[in-house]
Amino acid sequence: MNEKYNAIVVGAGPVGLTAALALRNKGISCLVIEAKPKDHPRPGSRAIYLHNATLELLEETSPGLGFELARNGVIWPIVRTLFQGKEVYYRNYGVTDNTNTEKLPHFTSLHQHEIEKYLYQHCVKKDVNFMWGDAIKTVDSSKEKVTLTTESGKLLETKYVIGCDGGHSVVRKEVGIEFEGPRTYDTFLVVDVDEDLDNPLPLERTFHYQHPAIEKRNVLMVPFKNGWRIDLQLLEDDDVNEYMSIDGVKKWLPKVMDPKYAERITWVSSYRFHQVVADSFTDKHRRVLLAGEAAHLFAPFGARGLNSGVPDALIAVRGIDLALKADNKNDRLEAIEAAATERKIAAEWNRNASTTALQHIQGNSPKMNMKREVAASLSAVIPKLGRWLEEGPYGPKYGPPELTTKY
Questions:
Q1: pTM of the model
Q2: 234: which of 120, 168, 249, 365 lies 20 to 30 Å off by Cα?
């Protein structure tokens, strides 16, 4: 098959769609290959939060996209933290307006299904080509090109590949790149429920340390457009199947929110989170770049997955653009290497940040338990201790200063 595309993106999730938009922006011919059929629902709990930095990057990539995502999500004005039922932090930012057309909001919250919908619409406007329902089987990288074969037997050749095909990435495995890092021992349940639009709950993000109604398990409740996400941290001896079965969820969910939501469950899953980063973000021939969950997996606290996947994709495209314009082999290699190195630094920083968040909320450290209890007892007279409890489950808010993009 003759080479048709200068770049192929593997995976049509939000990171792959972002890469495709960026490639078209640069005038680089590209194809997106997705293993699942078009509109096939993706399994698992998905992203629900976009940082301002991500909205800005998407707006720059496809004008109007950042504002469209902001307008179609929600902004919660209130954050609240409780310790064993006692409120230790509360703040009302008083901001819920997401209709501003001049300034992007601090964040927006909407389900990944919706995020992908708007990204895809912008891809269609930019004439991005897609191949649906055909998984990549092999990836052969050489000094001159990348050759891919699909499960259906198609043979494709291209100059560069961006692997955005998730945590079980075929692209990553085929070019011999491995994940490095641990997996958490604590089990978390993630439950999504539909909102009662006729009688919705107030828009608040709430974290409960040791919720008294559920035997001192940690609970996080986050609203998104037309729904809620509830994260429950199980105890070491808990029977995961008992808690994650629909009957099990219907038993504990009414203890932490209005019982009507027990009849509005849309998704339940359990996780022991990986804290892993690829040992390289590019192959030995500097023809393949990894982005998003193909390159790293983090615990979700602080929303670092998708929000780091977007700049992964954009920096990968920047590297490919420079490589295609390079006058010699060394400049080509350096362009890809620079892109891969930058995003590996970012991924390692994000892993450390999400590990800090995990250590803050895990209950197996006597020292951390004592620090939390002391902070909770003194939060009324020393407000910064309440703020420490509020910020702890999400990790540091800043990023490594040496990078050219946030997150």
A1: 0.92
A2: 168
